[in-house]
Design brief:
This protein is of the alpha+beta class. The protein has five helices and seven strands. It has helices at 18-29, 64-88, 106-121, 131-137, 159-171, and strands at residues 11-14, 34-37, 52-53, 99-103, 127-129, 147-151, 155-156. The strands form three sheets. Strands 4-6-5 form a three-stranded antiparallel sheet. Strands 1-2 form a two-stranded parallel ribbon. It is elongated. The structure holds flavin-adenine dinucleotide. Flavin-adenine dinucleotide binds at residues 14-20, 37-38, 40-41, 43-46, 48-52, 159.
Length: 172
Amino acid sequence: MRTHPTEGSDVLVIGGGVIGLVTAWRAARRGLSTALADPEPGGGAARVAAGMLAAVTELHYGEETLLGLNLASARRYPSFAAELEEASGQDIGFRACGTLAVALDADDRAHLRELHELQRRSGLESEWLTGRECRRLEPMLAPGVRGGLRVDGDHQVDPRRLAAALLTACER
Ligand SMILES: Cc1cc2nc3c(=O)[nH]c(=O)nc-3n(C[C@H](O)[C@H](O)[C@H](O)COP(=O)(O)OP(=O)(O)OC[C@H]3O[C@@H](n4cnc5c(N)ncnc54)[C@H](O)[C@@H]3O)c2cc1C
């Protein structure tokens, strides 16, 4: 794959953040001659993103269609991570560790309670924990934590490692 657009490529991807890099990698793997145009490939939002793979924790009202897509994507993530790590030889920091969203005050608590209700109505797995139960899981939490949501199916990746591995996979 070329990282400078040239004439004669089958595919030209403009923008080498994680989405553009995945697109270019996949296109190149399918045997297409692929060029990527970006003055700073592998940078973008991945430099500052948290890396939450949180289809359930980040559910919002009115996003049922997106939820289906997010859950399908989350199910495919472990095999995507394994394939990318093999192609790049780099660890992308994928951890199937579950997610804990905590409430620091009464407003947070009300918001998370509402989210929990929406998750249950949507048939999703999540568990309400007291502040004490949250701290038992994560002892570094502040003593004032008012409760939280445990979502065992939401995981994480290291976005900076992900972007670096994608860049390597693309170059290879
Ligand atoms: C603070 C923060 C936290 C986040 N946390 C999460 C999270 O926990 N979980 C999650 O799933 N998502 C999270 N996101 C969102 C996620 O990081 C982005 O959705 C994702 O990185 C977007 O990737 P992208 O490739 O679409 O775009 P970008 O990362 O924005 O990449 C765009 C690329 O295009 C290039 N470019 C721009 N203009 C041009 C041009 N004219 N010509 C050529 N190239 C150009 C740039 O150099 C850049 O490399 C977070 C985002 C932010 C900002």
